Amino acid sequence: MSANRKRVAVLISGRGSNMRSLVEAARAPDYPAEIVLVLSNVATAAGLDFARQQGIATATVDHKAFPDREAFERAVQETLLTHGIELVCLAGFMRVLTPWFVEQWRGRMLNIHPALLPSYRGLHTHERALADGVKIHGATVHFVSPEMDAGPIIVQAAVAVLDSDAPESLAARVLEQEHKIYPLALKLAAGGAARLEGSRVRTEETAAALPAALLWPVS
Ligand code: GRF
Predict the structure, then answer these.
(1) pTM of the model
(2) Is the N end or the C end of the chain the one with fewer CB atoms within 10 Å?
């Protein structure tokens, strides 16, 4: 294992399928990051079992045990520092973060959001996209900024919205793309190919090398 692979913590609250996609991608010997910790605010999060099976360190920091958000985050921060974490990936981590925590990880914390930001910040993105009748929907990996679901975009993938879609079918098609773009975005960020420049991300890759718009083919 290369000494300069970035030490990554993935923060989850539930299923953890994006975390799993990161763990699987990081098995490649030339991947510039290793997942060394999976942390959850929910002790029963299904993703923790997968991480344990993989021999990855896990931690639970139950937000309900703390008087306020920042006290919870200080406990999370202590755990991250104990494990020598260099990059944080939020993957279905269902906690609103304080500016204090976001500032600790400025340019070093990624999130995946199931919509093409800046459209559809917040929850229930697939239901809202269907209600609006948009024809293209997707997913975004971005650096985390204090404003929720609003940070500089690293990678996006688009899928076509079909007339026959229900929220579940659209979510499933978006999720399939999430599992491709999160490993790609982490690779770019950990390897130094994606860098913050003000409010934008500059990517040192040729456009042709990046599946920046993975449009679902409609036959
Ligand atoms: C994903 O849709 C992700 O985009 C959103 O929360 C969901 C988490 O799913 N932030 P999983 O736990 O990674 O399976």
Answers:
(1) 0.94
(2) C
